[in-house]
Specification:
Layout lengths: L7 E4 L7 H10 L9 E7 L6 H9 L19 E5 L6 E7 L13 H13 L2 E7 L10 H12 L9 E8 L7 H18 L15 E7 L7 H13 L24 H13 L6 H25 L2 H12 L5 H20 L4 H48 L4 H23 L10 H29 L5 H15 L3 H16 L2 H10 L1 H10 L1 H21 L1
Parallel strand pairs: 2-4, 2-5, 5-6, 6-7
Antiparallel strand pairs: 1-3, 3-4
Helix pairs in contact: 2-6, 3-4, 3-7, 7-8, 8-10, 8-11, 9-10, 10-11, 11-12, 11-13, 12-13, 12-18, 13-18, 15-16, 16-17, 16-18, 17-18
Length: 547
Amino acid sequence: MEKDYCVTQLIDGNGEFNASRINNFTKDVKFAASGESYAVVAIMGPQSSGKSTLMNHLFHTDFKEMNGKEGRHQTTLGIWIAKCVGITPYTIAVDLEGSDGRERGSHDTAFEKQSALFALAVSDIVLINMWCTEIGREQAANKPLLRTVFQVMMSLFGPGRKKTLLFVVRDKIPETPLDKLKATLLEDIDKIWDEVPKPHEHKSTHLNECFRVEVVAMSHYFYERKKFEEEVAELRQRFYNSISPGGLAGGDRRGVVPASGFSFSAQQIWKQIKENKDLDLPSLNVMVANFRCDDIAKQKFDELTKNQDWLKLEEAVKSGPVKGFGESLSSILETCFNEYEIEAKFFDEGVKNTKRHDVLEKRAYEFVQPAYTTMLEHIRSKAYKEFEARLTEALAKGEALVAAVETLTRASITEFDQGCADAAIKQAVKWDSSSIRDKLRSDIEAHVHCVYNDNIIADLKRMNLENKEEAQKQIDRLIELHQQDQETNARQMEQLKELNSRGLLYFIRQLFDDPNVKILATLVNPELGAALEVGSQILKVTDQIKL
């Protein structure tokens, strides 16, 4: 027999939930990988009625069984779980402590009710183990158990899925036909259901609206062992494809907690039961989704930071532009996000999408954006250097400065924009490249100013203004001439004085901008006026670059 059942105590006899054990259990049996494709089967019934024995034969588990030679006593203490071996879909068995045990006494029924509610909350199928001789008896041991089951079911009313109650009648008597036993049992069940107090809105609710009820009978384990084993083998077949439409658990998977969230969900359910709070399973499922999706998102982000492809890309872009940067980064992010979707796909859609956006995507984009910015700086630097080289080459060939600057600036900006588009990621996020684009324009403008200033100096030299002193003499002469006619040229004189105080190059620039001052300068020196015409064209190009 395959031994991968990993029998684990989930809740001890004192009602303490063992979180570390169930976490280890889910890892050891690789439970999380099953997603929503799993079933949980619990068994409850009187103490020493053979519950663990039935589960072991039915699912090939290894729950502790009572040794009759040591007497009749409590064997299962608390709640235990195990993986069912060889069953598809993935199935978890839950073995509950027996009811009506002398160890707890007749008045201590709190744990019995709590464990029954827990089993109904976490299970798809609940086996109720009972003796054949108890059927039809008013004071039978199974009656209090059924009342407990139906009472706690009132806490689970809502839009949840139907649970399957499978009554297993033990030690059947060959002389009594199964259909007769079944009819009597169902009559008793309906009577108990009708007697159980219900919320006003469910006064007329029938049992079949809450449960699928099935009845099977088993031969005596000791006296008819072979027949018992044949009947168990036949029943085992019904647990194959149990969650498919028409299966033992039905095909309704609404509200199913994904396997990766089962341990946290079970812990929260038990906590609410212990605190005597009404179970709101839909809200609990949302809480589980929040917890698990947040955990998955953080895990995927951590994996992204250690991704080898990302680390190589990050290192490469530090040294220079990387060909296919955008495509490579997009692929890395897409893999990260897809892995999140795979693990979180079974949880609440709204919670899943919120956690993806807030916990994973935002952090991922912030994490990789510096590398993108570095890539853009490389693109800007390359575009600027090529502009410098092309402008020098154009002027050396005798091309007009104004036309060359206009054409080459447009080409450099276009190349930068194309480079940014290639570096961008495919995901629906827009990173702003305008600041780096503005820096490129500023760099080009500064370089054009330098070229422009060099041309001005060349023009001044051509007019025999060998140095600043000679240029200053020309300015002083201009001011002296116009002082002779203060009444007609008062405004121009004040402007010339102000411009002169700000420096030579500022003065020359203003000559380009103001036609009146330009006329005055031309009167003083015709060659200076001609030079100003060339300068004014350069200023126009500079203004275009700013735009």
